[in-house]
Design a protein that fits this description.
This protein is 9% helix and 47% strand. Strands 1-3-4-6-5 form a 5-stranded mixed barrel. By secondary structure, it is mainly beta.
Length: 154
């Protein structure tokens, strides 16, 4: 195979509220931790073991604004995107690395009655289209990377 692929799909629970960072040009980035769990039974003790893995999720512009508005700590979400490793320096000048999931699509999985928000689906090639079901409201948001569009999808 001559090509490469950098794609991540996660279903997990948010570990905190979305933290927003705004730029001078009007763009923004939202960040939040996402927990995924692996559960298995230990063969020797018969004990149920759960391992939690934490992921740093990064969203841009409209997707970040929607998540900030509707996503709460503990909500379940499907996130799709790509891995990106960022290099930075700490207070002592040492190089540090952080691997992040740069989100291109997401769907809220917690029912709106449980979290108080609506479900959303964001994709880079999709336009805003509400579904026909009133109980399962989903909106798709166009979110091309690097472009800034101030119109809200709803």
């Amino acid at each position: 195979m001559s090509g490469t692929l950098n794609k991540v799909m996660l279903i997990g629970h948010t570990g905190d509220e979305v933290k927003m960072h705004w730029f001078e040009g009007g763009g923004c980035i939202g960040r939040f931790p996402l927990a995924t769990n692996e559960t298995y039974t230990n063969r020797t003790t018969g004990e149920k073991v759960t391992n939690t893995e934490w992921h740093n999720v990064v969203m841009r512009n409209k997707a970040a604004e929607i998540c900030e508005k509707y996503l709460n700590k503990g909500d379940k979400i499907y996130v799709e995107g790509r891995l990106k490793t960022r290099k930075w320096q700490d207070d002592q000048g040492k190089d540090r690395y952080s691997t992040e999931v740069h989100c291109t699509e997401f769907t809220f999985l917690t029912p709106k009655s449980d979290s108080g928000g609506m479900q959303h689906n964001s994709g880079s090639n999709e336009h805003s289209q509400p579904s026909s079901s009133a109980d399962n409201r989903e909106h798709q948001v166009e979110e091309p990377i690097g472009e800034d569009d101030d119109d809200l999808p709803f």
